[in-house]
Amino acid sequence: MNKQFLKKIRDNMPEPLKYVAASIFRNKLIKNKDYCAYTKLLENREFLNEDAIKDYQFSELKKILVYANDTVPYYSELFNQVGFYPHEMMSADEMNVIPFLTKEIIRENFDKLISTKKVLGGHYVATTGGSTGEPLKVLLDYDCVFKENAFVTHFRSKLGYKTTDKLATFRGVEFDDKLWKFNPMQNELIFSPFKLANHTLPKYIKKLNNFKPDYLNGYLSSIYFLAKLMSENQINFKYPIRGVFLISENIDPEQRAFVENFFQVKSSTFYGHSERCIVGEELQINEYSFDPYYGYTELIKNEDNTFQIVGTGFLNKTFPLIRYQTNDNCKSINSNTVSIEGRWNLSDFLIGFNGEKVFHSSFNFHSEIFKNVVNYQFVQNQKGRVDLLLVVNKYFANEEIDLMKKEIDKKTKDVISFNIKVVDKLILSKRGKFKMFVNNINE
Questions:
Q1: Higher pLDDT, 130 or 17
Q2: pTM
């Protein structure tokens, strides 16, 4: 069945019929030839030595470089200009002559980056979230979806996950006026992170108790907010969940610890991005290993001894990304693992009256005066002036706002003036992600 046609049926099917047809949709995923092939590949890898794994990676790297050279106009011209001949390549180090691929280059050369050879399964348009500026558009093979799922399932299996398990997912998709929607392909009930608040919590909890998911899945910010609201209202699930899968956001260690402690489970996450170029499995807390079967990852040293993450993906042939700069940074832990430092992002700091940059690390809200605050967010629309939005519990008193102002002024007096507001919910991006710093100053 055509993948686009299947997706239209899934998205437009009435909700009750989705539950009835769930097994049919699920089989389209777990019985897909690409999904099965990569699942077997990853399972067999457990028995290979390091040299065999590196040999496989180099073979895949050479294949995608040859393919890009032969079918993608941009790379054909570029490789010829720098004297790079992938058919003759004997070592990955020979790639160093290829200039990095930036987001700006992709925007300026979009049509020339499309392969002239049509992929059998077709392709679709994907966009990044735009957390570092203007969203980026790329083309992805439909088969990438199945290959990607094989990696994700493999990572999640470390927490006991099976493809028959149910997920309660919190992430930003189109909900219209609904609080949730069922996705039969992943056997998941997707909950809106936009409408989660004290007054909607009973509806969320009732639906979760009826659905009985095996795992929670989604943005840490949303799952943390759910756990905080449940804790403040002394609510627990009527059943035990088995774990939490975190996706798409930088991981706040304190929020993660709270979620694990509240639900009494372990969590896992992986590093990845919409461009499907690099994926990294978390082996220990904030210790990631880039998967050699997904792509070829390079760590380019910065002046401050951190490394920029650069990748060449293996899964996508319609729009191959070669030596793609992700704009993400990491620190090396050992020869196999790194800690992810995150993105260079304007919204990671506030701007003072005189242009001062006040970073997240400058704020430490462990004081007792914040004990009745469930979550908070900084919103800035002009230099030196910031709204501090608070979601509070039932014990919060308005007098606490004055105490907070005094506490914050100790650190930011004459630099930033804060207007503290109590709100029902915080501001989320179009994709439902939470950012502690919403900086609307365009500089």
A1: 17
A2: 0.75
